[in-house]
Amino acid sequence: MDQKKFESMLVLLVPQVVQLITENYLCDEITASKEFYVSEVYELLEQEDTKLWHLSALTLFHMFDEEKRTGIISFPEEA
User: Is the pTM of this model over 0.85?
Assistant: First the structure.
C-alpha cells in the first residue's frame, strides 16, 4: 500500500477508536487521543507492515483496552 493510502486509513480509523475510548472510559476526546497515541497498539498501527490497519476500529479498541488492563496485547486471529 502506498503511503498516502496508508495515511488515509489511519485518518479514518483513529477517530473511530478514540470515540470508542471516550465511550468506554468516560473521558473526553483529548484524553482519549493522548491515551491512544502513547499506546503500543497505536505504535504498531503506525507501522504499515504490521497490517493492523485492516482491523476494525472495534478490534483495535479491544486490543487497546487489553493493553490498558493487562499490559499485554493479544493479536486476533484475523490479524
Answer: yes
**CA distance readout (Å), 46 to 14, 23, 26, 53, 68:** 10, 23, 25, 8, 18
Long-range contacts of 21-29 (CB under 8 A, 24+ apart): 21/61, 21/64, 24/61, 24/65
Q: Which of 12, 19, 15 is nearest to 54 (CA)?
A: 12
Task: Report CA torsion sign: 48, 51, 9, 60.
Answer: negative
What confidence tens digit (pLDDT) does each residue in 31-48 have? 999 999 999 999 999 998
